[in-house]
Amino acid sequence: MSEIFGYGEDALTLWVLKRHVSTILNHFKDSSSHSDCLVFYRPSFGRHAKEHASVFGEFDAIVASPQNICLVESKWVNLVESKKR
To answer: Which residue of 36, 74, 83, 85 is 20 to 30 Å from 8, comparing CA positions?
Structure first.
């Protein structure tokens, strides 16, 4: 299998969905096995917005378990502070 290189929110979302669905389920006190879940992943491929505008589009992912439906939207936290460093 080829190596996959990614950057930004979409790459982090994909990484979490491949390795840490159980963490998402635990956050919502969902005892379902990750193997019983359906995961829909849709990277955004960017959106056009005015400078400094917060834009929400479609969800980046949906995790559906027998107990819950988790809507996933990835956003950078403290992005302005990170750019300064």
So the answer is: 36
